[in-house]
C-alpha cells in the first residue's frame, strides 16, 4: 500500500510501521493495511486489537477479506481518528510487539519515542 512509507524492526519481536495520513484516511471508517503490517498483525491471532495513543486506547476490529486478500482496521478506526484529532498530513508510527501476543498496537502521532524510528523516512 503506497500510504505506508516504511517498515523497520527494532528489538527482537518489535516492528514499526509508519504512515502519513491522506485526507480520506483521516476521515474514513477504515484504514487499509499493507501486506507486511498485516503479517505482523495476523501473528497476534486476534480479530480485535487496541490502538493506544497519547491518552487513550480504542478497540478496533480487523476486517479480513479472503477474496481481495486485504486487511483493514475497521470499526474503531474512525473513533480513534476523532479522539486523537487526526488530520491529513499527520504522521503515525505503529509499534507492534508480536512476541508477547498481546492485541495492543502503540501509535505515536507526529512523533516517535523510539530511537529506531529515526531510520524511518517520514518526509
TrEMBL record:
Keywords: DNA-binding, Nucleus, Transcription, Transcription regulation. It is found in: Nucleus. One of its GO terms (cellular component) is nucleus. Coiled coil: none annotated. Residues 16-113 form the TF-B3 domain. GO terms for molecular function: DNA binding. Pfam families: B3 (PF02362). InterPro entries: B3_DNA-bd (IPR003340), DNA-bd_pseudobarrel_sf (IPR015300), REM_fam (IPR039218). It comes from the Eukaryota. This is TF-B3 domain-containing protein.
